[in-house]
Design a protein that fits this description.
The protein is an alpha+beta fold. The chain has five helices and five strands; from the N terminus they run E-H-H-H-E-E-E-H-E-H.
């Protein structure tokens, strides 16, 4: 398979992926992404992606941090596989790549959030060994 995996650390590498991120959340404008990345990158945000023939097929934001209940963990964030690349095993390849990265970085656990209505994603993550552990609560300020 001619897939290439990359870790992106620079904003200039991440911004071109805005159309792909919009497939997950169409409310994320290019301007908003540009503004948010400034703060996110300062706090350790990176992106992991999979490319084929120069075209990004899937991406996941990644954060490595620590919580009392989990120890050091890697969080997958805004995980999206391009619509035209779904059902090709891209999500599995990307998840395996990120899992190996988490191990290399000494993480005890991986975490992610998935929208409640995205039941296909829930089934995929469960097949990948993720367990539904609780609810993610939000309070708008």
């Amino acid at each position: 398979m001619p897939f290439e995996f990359r870790i992106l650390i620079e904003k200039t590498e991440m911004l071109p992926l805005w159309p792909l991120l919009q497939q997950l959340n169409d409310k994320v404008t290019e301007t908003y992404l540009n503004e948010m990345l400034d703060d996110m990158i300062q706090h350790g945000y990176r992106m992991a992606g999979i490319w084929e023939h120069g075209h990004c097929l899937g991406v996941s934001g990644i954060w490595v941090t620590t919580k009392l209940y989990s120890g050091k963990y890697l969080e997958m964030d805004n995980v999206v596989v391009a619509a035209e690349a779904r059902s090709r095993g891209i999500g599995k390849l990307l998840t395996d790549f990120v899992t190996n990265l988490a191990r290399e970085e000494g993480c005890n656990m991986m975490m992610l959030d998935a929208y409640l209505e995205n039941e296909k994603a829930h089934l995929f993550y469960e097949r990948e060994g993720f367990v539904k552990k609780g609810y993610h609560f939000l309070k708008q300020l």
